[in-house]
Design goal:
Length: 399
């Protein structure tokens, strides 16, 4: 098989992943290169991970230095990178405490454990969490259950853990109607990413906040995708001026290394006594050093602002596309999380056509693609991306 990586994948890897026929070998800033030397603008950012750009020198230096100093100790001991990261996140958010894990799903699991404990202590044993249709919270069994997609009876992973009630997104009455004595929390994405970049009204999140206060429920924001500048503010909750009690992060937190976190206000930090929650790798020195460098970079370079400005530029171009290209029915976006919807199920064709024009995109629905470039993207890269998108789309509809 030599270096035929696609054949090696087909033979050795679990065939559970849908991939583009591209072997990526190098990345720098907004661009990546494949093993044949082709260059692409990466508007997928490793699924909203590479907020500080590919191979960011600050992150690379931090990883290099930490790898040569201390890689892993377990949480039996204190480590400096973990505590520096905890401090920078808490000092720059409305939260008081943090716990580190390895992924978004694990962060959400921690948040739900916290909500159940909170319900036991404060709401007579309440344990249910209200979630929204079209949400995405991860792939563990519980997070599959929390994710707002219908679970068919014949789903091979049945039975799913109970304790989640799903309601319409952007509908406060649905949240109110679903609230019972069993409810302990509501978990929402400030903007639904995987569900198609669905942006709720500001009133909705404010009304949910008010309802949670009235009922004594925890409000959890899953900011795994929206956090760390993606929506044009450091955290998505700031764009909506609504503070959650608990917030989960992952993706853009590590600057490319795998890390997740859940943060809580003091009143919601109920995971005690010591030992009630844990993780071998969570808060690992290497990943925390990378995440600290990445977060520092986002703050020092005001990437949230760049996300806002470049997001507006990208949206302006996408709106022109909507005006000029009939099959484009809707475009929507906030910061650098944008989607283009088509009148037909052509996402797969548009993505492979754009691969050829040198732009990497992500499918969120059979008829919708998502654009989420690194937050370091500049104006000429946005314009170039729009140009490549137009070429890719026009080939699909003219061909
Ligand atoms: C909002 C949200 N929550 C959770 C997850 C799961 O994160 P991970 O794949 O790191 O477990 C994702 C992943 O796409 C996500 O977008």
């Amino acid at each position: 098989m030599g270096n035929d990586w696609k054949a090696i994948e087909a033979k050795y890897y679990m065939q559970a992943v849908a991939r583009q026929p591209i072997v990526l070998v190098k990345g720098e800033g907004t661009r990546v290169w494949d093993d044949e030397g082709n260059e692409y603008l990466d508007f997928t950012s490793g699924w909203a991970v590479n907020n500080v750009g590919h191979s960011n020198p600050s992150v690379a230096d931090a990883v290099n230095e930490q790898a040569r100093t201390l890689l892993q100790t377990s949480n039996q001991f204190y480590t400096v990178p973990q505590l520096k990261l905890a401090q920078i996140l808490v000092d720059n958010s409305c939260m008081d405490r943090v716990f580190f894990g390895n992924s978004g799903a694990e962060a959400n699991e921690g948040a739900v454990k916290l909500a159940r404990k909170y319900g036991k202590l404060n709401r007579g044993g309440a344990y249910e969490v209200i979630t929204a249709w079209n949400s995405f919270h991860g792939r563990t069994l519980a997070m599959t259950s929390a994710t707002g997609k219908p679970h068919a009876k014949e789903d091979p992973f049945q039975p799913f853990p109970e304790g989640f009630v799903t309601v319409d997104y952007d509908d406060i009455d649905a949240v109110k109607d679903a609230t019972t004595d069993r409810t302990s929390a509501v978990i929402l994405e400030p903007v639904q990413g995987e569900g198609g970049v669905n942006i709720p009204s500001k009133e909705y999140l404010k009304d949910v906040r008010e309802w949670c206060d009235k009922q004594g429920l925890l409000l959890i924001f899953d900011e795994v995708q929206t956090g760390l500048g993606r929506l044009g503010t450091l955290f998505g909750y700031q764009s909506f001026e609504v503070e959650p009690d608990v917030m989960t992060l992952a993706k853009g937190l590590g600057g490319g290394v795998p890390i997740g976190a859940f943060l809580a206000k003091e009143s919601a930090s109920v995971l005690e006594p010591k030992g009630e929650h844990g993780s071998t790798f969570g808060g690992n020195a290497l990943t925390c050093a990378a995440a600290y460098a990445s977060t520092r970079y986002i703050l020092d370079n005001d990437l949230s602002h760049n996300s806002n400005v470049m997001g507006q530029r990208l949206m302006k171009g996408l709106m022109e596309l909507e005006r000029d290209c009939e099959p484009v029915t809707t475009v929507r976006g906030m910061g650098l999380l944008c989607a283009v919807e088509f009148s037909e199920d052509v996402s797969a064709q548009v993505i492979s056509s754009c691969n050829e024009s040198g732009l990497l995109l992500n499918m969120v629905k059979p008829n919708a693609i998502r654009l989420m470039p690194p937050l370091t993207v500049n104006a000429s890269e946005v314009d170039e991306g729009l140009e490549r998108l137009k070429v890719g789309i026009s080939k699909v509809f003219e061909g």
